User: What shape does this take?
Amino acid sequence: MKKRLNKLVPKRLRRKKSGASVQQNVPRITNETVAEHREEVLKSARKYIYPLQHSKHRIVLISSGLFILTIVAFFAYCTLALYRFQTSSTFVYRVTQVIPFPIARTGGNFIAYENYLFELRHYTHYYETQLKVNFENGKDKEQLNQFRKRALDKVVNDAYVKQLALEHNISVSDQEVNDQITIARNQQRLGSGEKVFEDVIKDYWGWTVDDFKRSLRTTLLAQKVAAKLDTETTTKAEAALAELKAGAVFADVAQKYSEGAFKDNGGEVGFAIDRTSKELSALATDALFKLQPGQTSEIINTGYTLEIYRHIETNGDKIRASRIVLNFKSIDTFVNDLKDKQKFTQYIKLPETAPVEEQPVPEQAPL
Assistant: This one.
């Protein structure tokens, strides 16, 4: 019966009825339904997002804690190594080059531990590599303690020298350092070539060229401070030169003013001088070879002395000469005066040392 009715109903009407039925079954899309759908999606996602956020937070906390713990452990190790065990290993030395641990204080200024290790390590390097000393042995260990005291005394004195230099507006330029090296190199005092020079300072002291310049700069600063403060010696040298320029006999002036070993011989140097002579300073030799026979030099500041030279004669590549030598007061004289006014505090305790037979370390700056 139903089939017969369907046949009687036009197909056109049957399609519309079917379409209307479908439309009635589709829910209407409104703002409320969209909001509900969005909330369902977010609700499903939250169960994955929240645990992930919580995990990231824990990772950050754990990482930060480990980082802080590592830093604390690192500083604790360095503090013990430097102040308790007084280690001078390469690792600890590199650390002090980055982190300014103090070893002492003069007035309101701290002295870097790195300065102390810089001095100590070049002493020990020479003894270990050139003399095959083992500082773990009893007697040699006592020698190490002597070096520690020497290194500490030096860096403390250097700090006072820097303070004096600052007060009197004294400094050492890069050009002054390079000029000193150039003069010495020309006289073959630092090797016959750049490579030889680098090898020598590395083998003897474990230094680079920059390390050598650093040591030389410190030496030059102390010399300039002493020369500036020792006005008495400068006055005497100027008086001696004035008498020579006025026509006085060199031997008589040498007898009157000179403090050198050749004073009683008219100031004459008792050996022939060539350009590589180590008995004279590099600056004195350089000035002497610029003179003609019979000429007298100006005052030459060698760093430790004020000297005046007279060129007597030339024999081949050698020179006979006379000289007047006036010694500067030791820089320690001025440093000790400042120490009396400004005490220093050291942050390491060095063991008591007994006198031991000490083999000399070659000069750092043979100029």
Summary: The two ends are 131 Å apart (CA to CA). The chain has three domains: 33-85, 103-230+334-346, 231-328. Residues 31-84 form the longest helix (54 residues). The first strand starts at residue 102 and ends at 106.
